[in-house]
Amino acid sequence: MKIIIIGGVAGGATAATRLRRLDEHAEIILLERSGYVSYANCGLPYYIGGIIENKQDLTLNTPESFSTRFGIDVRVHQEAIDIDREHKIVTIRETETDRVYREKYDKLILSPGARPVQPPLPGIDSHNLFTLRTVEDALAIRQFIETRKPKSAIMAGGGFIGLEVAENLRHAGLDVTIVDLADQVMTPFDADMAALIQAQLKKNGIHLKLKSSIAGFEETETGIRVLRKDEASLEADMALLAIGVRPDTKLAEKAGLQLGLKGAIVVDDTMKTSDPSIYAVGDAVVIRNAVTNQEALIALAGPANKEGHIAADNICGLEAHAQGSLGSSVVKIFDMTAASTGLSEKAAAAAGIDFDRVVLSPLSHAGYYPGAQSMFMKVVYERQSLRLLGAQIVGYEGVDKRIDVIATAIKAGLKADALADLDLAYAPPYSSAKDPVNMAGYIIRNVSGGLMKQFHWNEVQDLPAAAFKLDTRTEAEYAAGHIDGFKNIPLDELRERLEEIPAGQPVYVMCQSGLRSYIACRILMQNGYDAYNLSGGYSFYSAVM
Ligand code: FAD
């Protein structure tokens, strides 16, 4: 069997090596347009900033190591330019010489990835305006920084690549401004969680221009001018465009393969395209959102690797099926970590799901052990069935492990309140006996079981005028900052001062994190009051307002 793979990075390289492990005798050719295979796209921003110092560290395998260990014929600087499906022939152009030649295949795997979106704006081809996809792109940016010594940069786009590059440019000493059309960075996150990320960016000296539409670019003597619609233009020594990616499917389109969502290649769950001899994987294909079951484009390395594996298995006669993606992702923002899995509130609403959510701010590990830091965690679930839909966590230590536990729980089909029952590892330097994930489960169980009613930060301004609003923190905490209209009765005095709270009106209760106010709600409810707890407490309210 002769198998040709187009695209030699995440999906393509995985497919190639899995194929070899399953079939020692297959002829495997891996074609890659750029000069590198099996490179770490995800490490490119850190190479730009100098955190990864050597470019050799960006490549996990070389054509030589592929050949020696796997007997795979890896050809870099080779672009597949045509697929003759009838005769099963790929036409290839050697990019350095322009030589064109043809190769026959029995099976073909497409893993061409996605291109940075480059809208047809005036000046889009300007010098000093970069995009980041390949090692060559990263080399060009780093060389620019080392030779031209820019002092300022504009980052068009506040998605995860934009933020990683912004951080790294800052690390390299540049003054960085992020410009984004949306009213928040990191659109997979809800606006309240994104506000925490925005605060962190600002704290680290990054300027944010949100709700700002880029109208074009102009080269200047020293760098570049970014023109904005109805706003003053911005100038910097360099700019980088990371406003999203689009499936790189020109070749598939030309070959007449069925395309779907945003031009991505349609595949079945074995990764087979509309042509039974051609498989496709990675950023270029339409996949299924594992929560909504709807079609989705998820440009992440995990799904690409899994799909490469699945395609290879099916080609070699093993049965393997793609199971959709939760889009689990994590991003470092200076010393902060932001992670998400599954659906946000806005994605759940867009999917027409009746959802509820809890927000909490647990400590990363036992408070009595030095160095504990709080994280903000939001868990979204279907109101009636308690089906877990997704989570977002922003904090420092331990964010990544909590998001992975919740992603695993979603995949396993656990109900949201079952998070309370997970038996998780604990010692004081790592967690608490009730881990943050357990705590989320307990809160959900209290809410769904009617032991606690809650209200949210964005409802605070619209609470009924006649309602009693209660702040259960200490006098000192209250004096340091409180929400207008909330009366201070510290939790420990509540039982003695119940007569100060009028009967017959709802009582809206808050504290710093939501725990003392929960205890207060239980006291109030058992004394006949209709009490509501502020989800996430004053700490979340003040952080996102
Ligand atoms: P790619 O890995 O992009 O590989 C496609 C390859 O195909 C390219 O090298 C291209 O040159 C080649 N190609 C295309 N057309 C042809 C052709 N006609 N002939 C020959 N070769 C061709 N994901 C995460 O999960 N976590 C991260 O932290 C993360 N960080 C990222 C940071 C950056 C800067 C970038 C760009 C991406 C990041 N990603 C991250 C996304 C992740 O890298 C991709 O989802 C993943 O690499 C997709 O794999 P793929 O095989 O579909 O495409």
Automatic annotation (TrEMBL):
Segments crossing the lipid bilayer: none
Keyword Transferase: yes
Residue ranges occupied by any Rhodanese domain in the UniProt entry: 463-545
SUPFAM superfamilies, per the entry: FAD/NAD(P)-binding domain, FAD/NAD-linked reductases, dimerisation (C-terminal) domain, Rhodanese/Cell cycle control phosphatase
Keywords in alphabetical order: FAD, Flavoprotein, Oxidoreductase, Redox-active center, Transferase
Superkingdom as given in the UniProt entry: Bacteria
GO MF term set: oxidoreductase activity; transferase activity
Needed co-factor(s): FAD
Family label: Belongs to the class-III pyridine nucleotide-disulfide oxidoreductase family.
UniProt protein name: NADPH-dependent 2,4-dienoyl-CoA reductase/sulfur reductase-like enzyme/rhodanese-related sulfurtransferase
Organism per entry: Catenisphaera adipataccumulans
Upper classification of the organism: Bacteria, Bacillati, Bacillota, Erysipelotrichia, Erysipelotrichales
